[in-house]
Structures are given as C-alpha cells and as structure tokens.
Fold this sequence. Notes:
By secondary structure, the protein is an all-alpha fold.
Amino acid sequence: MADNAMNGAVRAATNSRPFELAARAGYSISGVLHLLIAYIIVRLPFGSAGNADQSGALATLAAQPGGAVALWLVAGGLVAMALWRGAETILGSHPSEPGREHDGPYDVFDRIKSGGLALIYAGIALAAVKFADGGGESSSQRNTGLTAQLLQTSWGKALLLIAAAVIIGIGGYHVYKGISTKFEEDLTVSGGGPLITPLGIAGYTAKGIVLGGAGVLLIIATLTTDPSKGAGLDAAVKSMGEAPFGRVLLIAAAAGFAAYGAYCFVLARFSRM
Length: 273
C-alpha cells in the first residue's frame, strides 16, 4: 500500500510541467559544463593548465563575474535532473509517457542506470554549491587521495578493480550508443537529422573513449600502486596528450566533448521524459 502511494506521488510529480522544464534545464546545464571541459582540453596542447573534468568546468564558472550566482543555478538545474532520474528509478524510464509498460531485463538495466545518473547529477550539484561558497575541490586531487587510501588494503584494491570495470563498461556503452545511433531512441523526433545524429555519434563516442581510458588507468593505478593514475577523467585526457600525436588526440577529444555538449542542448528540447 505504501509503495502504491509513493509511486502515485512520484508519478504525480513527473506529470508536473514545471518539474519537467526544470529537469530539461539540467540537460542544458550539462551541455554548458561539457563545452567548458572541451574548452579546457583544447587549450592543453598549447601550454594552458586546468582540470579537464567537471570540477575544472565548475572552477572556470566560479572565476567569472557573477560566477557564484551561475553556480547556484547550475546546482538547481542538476538537482532537478537528479530528482527526475530518481523518479525514473522508481517508475521506469520516460515516466511522463502514458501507458508505457516497464518490465523485463531492459527495464531493470534502465532503472539501475537512472539510479546511477541520479547520484552523479546530485554529486555535481553538491560540487557546484561548494564552488559557489568558495570551497570547491579538484576532482583529480580528490580521486587521487581516495585511490591512495584504497590502495593500502587488499579489499580496497578489489573495490578499485570493480570500479574500473564499471567505468570501462560505462565507457563502452557510450561508444556503442554513439556508433549504433541508439541515442536516437531517447528523442521525440525520429531519424535524428543531418545535425543531431552526427553530434550524438561524435559526442557519445568521444566521451566513451575517454571514460574507458579512465577505467584502464584506474586498473594501472591499482596494479602499480600509483594513485596518480586514478585521478579520473582529467588523468585520462592528459594521458592522451602524452601519447604519440598527443596534440591531435587532445583536439579530437575537445571536439568530441563539444559535440556532446551541443547534443545536451538537443536533449533539453527533444528528450523523451
């Protein structure tokens, strides 16, 4: 009975137009953050410093005039998106679509994915609040510190290897979703179009490759007991820069993240909610 009451309350919330619009704004905010990451990455080959991850994007916003206000807006939009993903975890994907059936293994996968995304959005929103209050922290430094702590125990190393496998899996799914154009299933427009489809392919593929690289580096960090390799997205991007033709790879990664950022604005307008 309590479950039915909770489901009813959550469903009523997802039928709220203001809630849906706030969640859609979260996509736009994600787009801005990915464009800022692309900006940071494209400057790396030319000697500029910066963290090529969400914390670097938030720090860039914080340094601008009115940055604190912008960061509070970022936090608000991401909280709305986190709550929407939480609703999807309870009701199934696209809860605003009436009469949609939610069952089977794909539904379980979608609910788990939505729950994970809810945590990610909530975490970035919390980071935005900290940056707005002047207490922001680099994700790479935090990840390195956490990796160093976990490397001190055998169970911690096992946890790191599991996390690496999950990250690689997420990266692989992004690449698959991009190359197969499966992302078009998330849109209310059919066929994608001459602009939307290329943005989705480039964005999902590039982000997936970098995420996969972060997972591989986390495995290396665990096997070599080198916590600096477990710094996350920033370490993966900068490792690309150290490879042969690193400058070209970084520019390509920046273009991919910019494409994903642009695609987020497509989601803000045409995503199935």
